[in-house]
Amino acid sequence: MSRPDPQRNKIKLADPCVSEAEERAVVEVLRSGRLVAGPRVEEMERRLAELTGRKHAVAVSSGTAALLAAMEALGVGSDSVVVVPALTFPSPAVVAAFLGARVRLCDVEPDTLNLSARTLAAAMGDDVTHVVAIDQFGVPAPMPEIERVAGDVPVIVDAACSLGAALDRRPCGSFGRAATVSFHPRKIVTTGEGGAVLTDDGALAAAVRRFRNIGMGPTGFESIGLNLRPSEMGAAIGLCQLDRLDDIIHRRDELAGRYRSLPIGFQRPPEGGSPNNQTLAAVLPDGEDRDGLIRHLADNGVEAQVASYCIARLPWLAVRLGVDPASVPVASTVHDLGVALPLHEGLEVEEVDLCASLVHDWLDERGLGG
């Protein structure tokens, strides 16, 4: 099997796959004269609610905007204490802090890379006002257990990566007082950039709609808000992607399976969990050189990346939040040893097999080939 030229033929970590259908849909929007928050956004919201079994879906301009709108609608503010998993892209913690809340980190489990009832219970206290749960990399968090531990404390599910995944045949996005999704280009469904808030609470959905529209409601400007409106062009792209969602997930599952024989610690879904393989994450053994593996792959024309971040290991944010990496050892380990390998529906089987072979060769050189 020939190896790609690292300067000319890179195997990408992720690649948004768009077709002629998306191109035609965007052209139709451009010709319609309605570019923002119109009929295609409304159709996207209807489809998202139907897909996740929610009563309401409110589209916004990004996944971070969805978190901001949901937290603001649920009253996160200066008197709040928000529990956030320590292993995550910083958005949930940054948004909570932006709204004035105190952020408390909880650790994740080493196999699922998600929070659990055990890790959440260790972070809970009488002062906690909100909990954020994350479906890390498209692997469902154990939401019934999380909601049991949270009790009356509202849970916001960051389902940014998990559209199309399920837990016990219940779709991700259907759990929590509210769930948020992202349509960033690395996600299963992309709109270029975008997000949505999913909920069964009509008053909460109405508050999010006002907030995304600078506080405007049926009677005029009714509350504080921002311009977080989604584009019609993005929704048109997203609708085409939703039409192919089952095929996209099936293809990703097929490709992910070709990596699984590698002797490294791949993220494992919980019992009853059906992940969507949004990101293929693995954790190398203690003491190994994760960055060296990424360089080895790059030298052979393959793009890989760190899996995710431990919030307490990001210096500026750790100081701002007053958090200690010693309190979240698993997340800290994944920060150092976690790697994301190329996975998207545009990859050929031969390309995945090449990536796996390169990883295996690197492990062999270090006596870890198995």
Tell me the domain tally. 2
Low-confidence stretches: none
For the secondary structure, the number of strands is 16
**H and E string:** HHEHEHEHEHEEEEEHEEHHEEEHEHHEH
Residue share in helix: 25-40%
With helices defined by DSSP (H or I, 4 residues minimum), what is the helix count? 13
Radius of gyration: 21 Å
Principal-axis shape equals globular
Global mean pLDDT: 95
Question: Which class of the largest domain in CATH terms?
Answer: Alpha Beta
Name the CATH architecture of the largest domain. Answer: 3-Layer(aba) Sandwich
CATH superfamily of the largest domain: Type I PLP-dependent aspartate aminotransferase-like (Major domain)
Q: Gap between N and C termini, in Å?
A: 22 Å
Largest sheet, if any? 7 strands, mixed
Structural class assignment? alpha/beta
What report would you give on this structure?
The chain is built from 13 helices and 16 strands. The protein is of the alpha/beta class and 370 residues long. The protein folds into two domains: 223 residues, Type I PLP-dependent aspartate aminotransferase-like (Major domain) (Aspartate Aminotransferase, domain 2), CATH 3.40.640; 121 residues, Aspartate Aminotransferase, domain 1, CATH 3.90.1150. The strands form four sheets. Strands 1-9-8-5-4-2-3 form a seven-stranded mixed sheet, with helices on both faces. Strands 12-14-16-15 form a four-stranded antiparallel sheet. The protein has a three-stranded antiparallel sheet with strand order 7-6-13, with no helix packed on it.
